[in-house]
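Final report, closing paragraph on structural work. Over the funding period we assembled a curated collection of sequence-structure pairs, and we close with a single example.
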Amino acid sequence: MRISDAQIKAAILHPESSVRRCAVEYFALSGSTDPDLMPAVIDSIATHGRAETLPSLAWAFLLPQSAMSVDWAISELFLAHQSDDEEYAAALRGILEHADAHLLKGKETALLAAEHPRTSLVDAVRERIELISWSEDQCWQHLDQLCEECRVERDISDDAIAQACYLVEALSRFDSRCEARVLKLLAMDAREFDENPLAWLEPLAIRLAGALRLDAAIPSLIGRLGEGSAHLVPECTRALIRIGSPAVLESIEARYAQAEPFERMALAEILERIPGDATVAIIHRLLACENSEGPRYFLLGGLLSQFSQEGIPLVRDALLSAGEDPSQEHYDLRGRLLDACAVMGETFPECDAWRAEADLLQPVGVEGRRASLACDSDRQPRSLPVSASTLPG
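Its predicted structure, as stored:
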């Protein structure tokens, strides 16, 4: 049984910083559309202060914004520069860079006043606002041209990556009108990276499939997970999370037993971020036949991210059965168990002792994996190809 979203939301104001971060991360990475989340984060900052709330605010760029929260971020950005608080300013820039372009319209002058000295934020906002008026054909033509230029140059600049992501954002507003073209792109073979412009379009088509929540793209996305391509697996993972439909869950469960361990970890990561009792039930069924430590840790972490009370004893038992030299992932899972229990209001026999040790341990193992999902945004240039290499979250 999972606790309610209302209970998780209440933890955004929890006294402990890691627990607040845990709650905000849940909503950010599961693509929640709850308009009350950002006001809760703002209240948390007012209560606990900037420094204590930075870990939570770092995830806020993935929360739904409003005219109020955009105005708040702009005014706070001005104050952050006044006090030379660059970490706080960076988090605020993330919110403004990812807010809906319609909310930013008419805010350019205020942004120029707040963002001093001027950074790329103002130019990015202006470009995204301009794209609001573009037609679907204009967006596709410009995207095709950009990918052809990258093929010829056999490289792609940060500016080009950002521009491509802005175009994906603009195309997502055309909804089902883009569906046929996206599915056609996903059906093509773009394996010859250097000579094929489709290789540059492929990850963008995957992002767009996620933004449009195309169930018809699920078989293609699941298939690419199995291929293990370094720059496509993260994109497919995020796209499937965004689609988040019952068909995604069914496809994951059907594929899991035949998948290699690396693919099972990716599948478990998707389950972690599609909230619901149906997801929890699937995780339990997969755990019953999973013997590999890596995928098993991912599945157990998924139960914690789902705030499943039945997951607490399973995770505890796994931690207690670890050998004398536990891995860093073990300590990460332990930290996540403590935070999840705090959110759920639950405890277990070792809880106080492990919490006392927590300050001496730095849970970084799976943290990087979770952070990589923070690019669940069509404007975040994280894993597009760069000279056949990849880009995190």
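The chain has 23 helices and no strands. The CA atoms of residues 61 and 98 lie 6 Å apart. We thank the funder for supporting this effort.
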